TrEMBL record:
SUPFAM superfamilies registered for this protein in UniProt: SIS domain
Species, as recorded: Escherichia coli
Assigned keywords, A-Z: Isomerase
EC numbers on record: 5.3.1.13
GO terms, molecular function: arabinose-5-phosphate isomerase activity; carbohydrate derivative binding
GO biological process, alphabetically ordered: carbohydrate derivative metabolic process
Transmembrane segments: none
The organism's taxonomic lineage, starting at the top: Bacteria, Pseudomonadati, Pseudomonadota, Gammaproteobacteria, Enterobacterales
Protein name per Swiss-Prot or TrEMBL: D-arabinose 5-phosphate isomerase
Amino acid sequence: MIAISNSGESSEITALIPVLKRLHVPLICITGRPESSMARAADVHLCVKVAKEACPLGLAPTSSTTATLVMGDALAVALFKSTRLYC
């Protein structure tokens, strides 16, 4: 499973972690906090921490969502290339 949360503490996802572990489901987490609960529980943690959001008020998740999108794109390309189905 791939789980995404900037804080790494999203209750919807952290509640699933014990179930995933019990079922031996590999967990890849993309978070902005390497010290988070999700990052510690993940089999693979991909950190997308940003120094500051582009929003002048620091309220809108601008930079963090862009960093997460880039990581998702990189994963998709790597998976695609690993299947050897590309030209």
